[in-house]
Give the backbone structure.
Amino acid sequence: MAMTVFRTLAEWRMIKPASGSLGVVPTMGALHAGHISLVERALNENKYVVATVYVNPTQFNNASDLAAYPQTFDDDCAMLEQAGCQFVFAPTYETLYPDQYRYRISETEISRVLEGEYRPGHFDGMLTVVLKLLNVIGADVAYFGEKDFQQLLLVREMLHAFQHPTRIAACPTVREADGLAMSSRNRRLNPAQRALATEWSRTLANLSLSCQEARDRLERLGFRVDYIEERWGRRLGAVHTPQVASGVEIRLIDNVALPR
């Protein structure tokens, strides 16, 4: 079947398959091979798959970061159709936020540390939009990558707390050949920053280094480090790339599993 793009709940009610398992892959667009791996797994495990493509403004605490986020909808749709995805939900702000974001989801513990500390309000926006998307789609399973591990943890616990029927499937981080985690932000790196980004991923993954030793090494390389910490069985980190070769700082996050 040809891929169908829909933008409202009313449209989805008209075209939603009456039977057969349904998977959903929430995205903010600017798709890469990591996103497509989620779609491919969803297709392997379900009869139908919906990808959502929506750059959610409520999870950006920095207006310039939102403005710089790549908008590649036509290319995204081409990639999704080639992968075999049957449906794409591309809502407007008015569709998702008829209340102008007066009502929102807040979590009071996990969302306050690491990313939550450095991006205030981010997780309120993320949790709110994910719940809205999952309510609209009504999928059996939602697929999330482990690269955004804190996000994955919060979404899973939110759905458990609200007894939501959609199940979460965690998918391993997809990496470039040199180990850098695939991210939509990578396309904003200039060549000099891209070369340094390899050192970021290697340093974080080098568990023979303590968190402080890893931080010290990255700072000597010119990175501005937000955090490197070990929680939830992972080592998690966030850095800003140096402003080399006239580039602007790009914030990168990653995590690796700790030995059991």
Residues 122-137 form the longest helix (16 residues). The beta strands are 4-6, 22-27, 48-53, 87-89, 141-145, 167-171, 224-231, 234-240, 251-257.
